[in-house]
Amino acid sequence: MNRKPLTAVLLAGALAASVAGCAPGASPTSQQSTSPSGEITVFAAASLKGTFSQLAKDFEAANPGTKVKLSFAGSSDLVTQITQGAPADVFASADTRNMSKLADANLVEGTATNFATNVLEIAVPPGNPASIASFADLAKPGIKVVTCASQVPCGAATDAVEKASGTTLSPVSEESSVTDVLGKVSSGEADAGLVYVTDVKGAGDKVKGIPFPESDKAVNTYPIATVGSSKNKALAAAFIATVTGDKGKKVLGDAGFGTP
Asked: How far is it, in rounded angstroms, from Cα 11 to Cα 88?
């Protein structure tokens, strides 16, 4: 019987081990998950501008080679854009109603995660020239109040507070986002506006905030989800994990958001 030399046997064994080591799952290195990479576009409610700008910056720093593009507007406007095919990877809404519209249309991946809450506050110009002290004051004759339109989350919250308190407002303007309302107040075009407590805090000395007890009748919950048409769902999921994780909770909490 023809026997192979021992050296040939050993070489064959070494070669086999080398090939096996290159096989999927065989190397500890190959088993490690790859770092997120690439670019995503995040559509987020206007009230999230400050916090998401910070979180996107921190995310990019922690994940070199990634880019997070941000687009802010009223949640209902963002839903319309996504429904019409606008390229987005992540959607963060200021209410569950608008997120449900996308979910019902099968335009989001999986189940949305609730990550923050917010309540309304009255914003007035510095010095409060109209002497607004309560929600009922907003209905007084001659008071120029600005609100969000009803289809926008802050507008729906305003409607809920009106109904719960029995107070009917007659706004001189209905805006498509809280930032537009805030702009009219800070410029002196309005005596008061209804925005989120986080918007008042973020505006600094541009406006003065007036809390009112009826605000607890309309607590908005913020959900976030991956858009179904995303071309980088791994990176989208990684960003969402940052928003819903300890880092996100810290940034959101510091801005005045509540926890669901």
From this structure: 54
